[in-house]
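Hey, I'm writing a tutorial for new members on how sequence and structure tokens pair up, and I'd like a real worked example in the thread rather than a made-up one. If someone can provide the structure for the chain below, I'll link this post from the tutorial.
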Amino acid sequence: MPGPSPDIAEVLSAANLVVLPSVSGETFLRAVIETMALGKPVVATVVGGTQEAILEGVMGYVVPPGDVEALAERIGRLGASDAMRCVRP
């Protein structure tokens, strides 16, 4: 999303899933936390603390940075999974 959004919950609520393909360390996982708080799954790269924040296979997936094939596979898996798209931890 470009720029700040006054109501991030509204924007995230409209999404089926959120993808965070960062290639460098994230110091604070606000996007991951906000997304999961709304019950939306996340596909993110293993940078910063994402691996500790995302319960693999329950609230999303983590993939190696730069692994486009793994990223696409996980996005496709979530697209086919109605169950994970509406799960809360």
